[in-house]
């Protein structure tokens, strides 16, 4: 039987198209009392029911590149509107309109669109990332943040990162002087940081649970990244879909891992001695229910499991990706690698391992990280938010329940703010006196506003601990000695670098 993906591809036929248009037009025009809005311009001719789906499917480039190209035109310069099926989607391509929406009107832009995929992956949006703006989500985020402050800050984080990096360094050293694919070792490093924080657990490289995780991660990102036909229109959910089947298989495997870890934490839970973020959330759940009986059922075990899964998952992919790209930039620019080595050696002096107190002495290394975050832009269209009420941006009306995409990729490459925007130039983050200038105007790697990344400080601290520890030990280079080109997997959701083999030499 034809799957819905094949069906959509074949929808070019005039006959089917005509039926869709006619039915849609009838429904569209006969909606009683529809409010008229002064909407932002749309670059495409919009069909009722299917919206701009055909134009989007025919895009030759990644959607964020096509949206950026549109922004070069006068009419669609800063923002425009498209339709995913019947759903209006606002695309913000410029920092001015992003600041107005996410910062000035932060409550208006704090929702999350409900998607078939999101509901399936989060047991009905019971997590932090997909959870819609409201009292339950606010409480959940507050509890998760305070759990992170206990287990992912200061000395606890230092110990966790140092230990995780040491394990991965030992794995690299075992491989000898041959070119290696660094990804699995970096995944182990980040997996151990995340599992340590989330569940108080660590893994060896050959642990079957870790190896299984490596195998399913790519499938998971792929399945998540491409969305489901039901997200375009709810009725497509009822047609057979190969993507749906794939997503369900991967979801079951990921959930099995999370459920097992959650069950272990519950079994060993001691309210007087919390040992992980899960323990802290269990403790907060207990205290809230004891204080107020009505809190029972607000922060359920499923919320805790899903919330921890977010902290674990959101951190894993993004930090792994950024570390791999940081190393790739070092290989592409041996002179910069040399500067980083010199700075780290001077900053650490006789210290065996980097701590958070060394960070302020490694401004050039941190500038390289900032530049990696800018060029890497892990989530090029961020994560969609949704308007919680009728609102406006740049003088245009934006109706309630509009999905909003922030084109971070375009914003991080806006030539009005970044000279030679595609090149790796860490010095652009330093002022004339060599200090880190943390506030370049068109820069938001962790997004902004109500839905700003919850793990921003953990991510920056972890990376500024892991990078010096790795760089102190190793010099990275391209095996062939040829110029090394960084390329990315095809995914609309996250930018994941392709696998490469690097030469990793011990520094003497
Ligand atoms: C380099 C690393 C990271 C980058 C670039 C990054 C970036 C982002 C971005 C762009 C968003 C979407 C914000 C929005 O919807 O507007 C996000 C959300 C989120 N991130 Fe991160 N992140 C990183 C690391 C982490 C880490 C380490 C954690 C947890 C320990 C984390 C936890 C989260 C959570 C829970 C959300 C959802 C926030 C919400 O919906 O309220 N992230 N992140």
Automatic annotation (TrEMBL):
Originating species: Ridgeia piscesae
Transmembrane segments: 12-30
PANTHER family: STEROID 17-ALPHA-HYDROXYLASE/17,20 LYASE, STEROID 17-ALPHA-HYDROXYLASE_17,20 LYASE
Protein name (Swiss-Prot/TrEMBL): Cytochrome P450
A Pfam short name: p450
Keywords attached to this entry: Endoplasmic reticulum, Heme, Iron, Membrane, Metal-binding, Microsome, Monooxygenase, Oxidoreductase, Transmembrane, Transmembrane helix
The keyword Nucleotide-binding appears for this protein: no
Gene Ontology terms describing biological process: hormone biosynthetic process; progesterone metabolic process
Gene Ontology terms, MF aspect: heme binding; iron ion binding; steroid 17-alpha-monooxygenase activity
Binding annotation for heme: 453
UniProt keyword Nucleus, yes or no: no
Membrane topology according to the record: Peripheral membrane protein
Family the entry assigns: Belongs to the cytochrome P450 family.
Any one GO CC term of the record: endoplasmic reticulum membrane
Necessary cofactors: heme
Compartment list: Endoplasmic reticulum membrane; Microsome membrane
């Amino acid at each position: 039987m034809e799957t819905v993906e094949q069906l959509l591809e074949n929808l070019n036929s005039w006959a089917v198209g005509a039926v869709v248009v006619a039915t849609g037009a009838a429904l569209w025009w006969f909606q009683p009392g529809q409010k008229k809005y002064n909407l932002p311009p749309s670059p495409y001719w919009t069909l009722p029911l299917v919206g701009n789906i055909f134009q989007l499917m025919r895009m030759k480039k990644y959607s964020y590149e096509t949206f950026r190209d549109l922004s070069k035109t006068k009419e669609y310069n800063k923002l425009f509107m498209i339709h995913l099926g019947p759903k209006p989607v606002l695309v913000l391509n410029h920092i001015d309109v992003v600041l107005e929406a996410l910062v000035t009107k932060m409550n208006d832009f704090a929702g999350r669109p409900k998607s078939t995929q999101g509901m399936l992956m989060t047991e009905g949006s019971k997590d932090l990332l997909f959870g819609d703006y409201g009292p339950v989500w606010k409480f959940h985020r507050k509890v998760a943040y305070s759990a992170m402050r206990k287990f992912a800050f200061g000395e606890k984080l230092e110990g966790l990162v140092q230990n995780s990096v040491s394990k991965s360094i030992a794995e690299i050293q075992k491989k000898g002087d041959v070119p290696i694919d660094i990804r699995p070792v970096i995944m182990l490093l980040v997996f151990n940081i995340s599992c340590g924080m989330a569940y108080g657990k660590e893994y060896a490289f050959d642990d079957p649970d870790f190896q299984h995780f490596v195998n399913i991660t790519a499938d998971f990102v792929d399945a998540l990244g491409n969305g489901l036909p039901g997200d375009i229109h709810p009725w497509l959910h009822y047609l057979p879909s190969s993507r749906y089947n794939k997503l369900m298989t991967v979801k079951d495997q990921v959930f099995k891992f999370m459920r097992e870890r959650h069950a272990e934490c519950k079994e060993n839970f001691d309210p007087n001695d919390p040992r992980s973020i899960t323990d802290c959330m269990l403790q907060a759940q207990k205290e809230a229910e004891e204080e107020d009986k009505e809190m029972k059922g607000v922060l359920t075990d499923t919320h805790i499991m899903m919330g921890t899964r977010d902290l674990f998952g959101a951190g894993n992919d993004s930090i792994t990706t950024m570390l791999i790209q940081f190393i790739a930039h070092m290989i592409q620019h041996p002179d910069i690698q040399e500067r980083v080595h010199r700075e780290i050696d001077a900053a650490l002096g006789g210290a065996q391992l980097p701590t958070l107190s060394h960070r302020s002495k490694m401004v050039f290394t941190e500038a390289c990280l900032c530049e990696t975050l800018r060029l890497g832009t892990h989530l090029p269209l961020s994560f969609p938010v949704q308007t919680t009420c009728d609102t406006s941006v740049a003088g245009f009306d934006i109706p309630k329940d509009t999905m909003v995409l922030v084109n971070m990729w375009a914003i991080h490459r806006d030539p009005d703010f970044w000279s030679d925007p595609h090149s790796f130039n860490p010095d652009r983050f330093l002022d004339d006196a060599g200090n880190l200038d943390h506030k370049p105007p068109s820069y938001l790697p962790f997004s902004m506003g109500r839905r700003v990344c919850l793990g921003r400080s953990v991510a920056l601290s972890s990376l500024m601990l892991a990078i010096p520890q790795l760089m102190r030990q190793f010099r990275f280079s391209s095996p062939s000695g040829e110029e090394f080109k960084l390329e990315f997997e095809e995914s609309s959701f996250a930018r994941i670098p392709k696998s490469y083999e690097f030469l990793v030499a011990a520094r003497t």
